[in-house]
Amino acid sequence: xxxxxxxxxxxxxxxxxxxxxxxxxxxxxxxxxxxxxxxxxxxxxxxxxxxxxxxxxxxxxxxxxxxxxxxxxxxxxxxxxxxxxxxxxxxxxxxxxxxxxxxxxxxxxxxxxxxxxxxxxxxxxxxxxxxxxxxxxxxxxxxxxxxxxxxxxxxxxxxxxxxxxxxxxxxxxxxxxxxxxxxxxxxxxxxxxxxxxxxxxxxxxxxxxxxxxxxxxxxxxxxxxxxxxxxxxxxxxxxxxxxxxxxxxxxxxxxxxxxxxxxxxxxxxxxxxxxxxxxxxxxxxxxxxxxxxxxxxxxxxxxxxxxxxxxxxxxxxxxxxxxxxxxxxxxxxxxxxxxxxxxxxxxxxxxxxxxxxxxxxxxxxxxxxxxxxxxxx
Length: 377
Hints:
Layout: E1 10-11, E2 26-27, E3 30-36, E4 60-65, E5 71-72, E6 77-79, E7 89-90, E8 96-97, E9 102-106, E10 123-125, E11 138-144, E12 150-156, E13 176-178, E14 188-189, E15 192-193, E16 200-201, E17 205-213, E18 219-226, E19 233-239, E20 247-253, E21 261-268, E22 274-283, E23 289-291, E24 295-299, E25 305-308, E26 311-312, E27 315-320, E28 324-331, E29 336-344, E30 348-350, E31 357-365, E32 368-376
Parallel strand pairs: 9-10, 12-13, 26-32
Antiparallel strand pairs: 1-16, 2-3, 3-4, 3-14, 4-9, 5-8, 6-7, 6-11, 11-12, 14-15, 17-18, 18-21, 19-20, 19-22, 22-23, 22-24, 25-27, 27-30, 28-29, 28-31, 31-32
């Protein structure tokens, strides 16, 4: 998912129709169309597997069929020249690429459930268990069919002449193309970077998603969606630490309205003191799931104030037990981005000019101090 958006959750799944083929890496009628090298870029990011986290699991390679005939890609291999030995992934049997369609191979689509991974149509899980598949500074990707024919793409600092032939025995320098550098967080295409490239949209739209810590220290989560299926369930998941697994703490049944907007609310009555992490997992009757961005709520013994919403597109405000507040906003490296004084209770604060990303909001008043994470979207 590119930089977090409250309107659409984007995931790389089957769908992008192909109308033209670039000359790079064409094997029969199948070509490498896109690489997501570094999902967690500075300005853009993609949550390809839709698990609420953005990391190397979200790397993907997309191949497409430019012909008018279906191509059997069963047994085709893909990988680079780094350990483990080539290939990093072999396309399973009975995999067919329809005319004009694409297939997205995701580094690790189900990091929490590798044994029972169910992917949307047109997505394959590579189940890559290492530190990262595609090198951020440069790498080679080779696609090899069952006859040993290959084509390759290099990018960044890696050159075709530098590919280790011992690691990729079928590598052919004559069918190797250089795609140049890439922009952090944006898919790398045969025609260059594209920060507007989105393979397809999942069937659920989160129109709003918000979290509020009440005066009695319960956490309330509100969301609204447009649904494509009337039998969905929404699992509310909580974690005390992003390095810990999320657990289900509640479930809401779909309201069944597929022609309009549905509104939902859940209250976590006994959250931990400190930071609490939440996400919503929508599950359709078919088993297809969609995961919301992660929301963060901080609970204190003596709550001085609260900034909301926690996902901010342009404006947020502070409510609490003080008349005036002074704020400072820092990025995740600790760099000061913005300060403002003499802010009234419930006064709107505009951060439209700040780059999208994660920030720490520090708030001081006559009654105390609190710090809260916010996400600019």
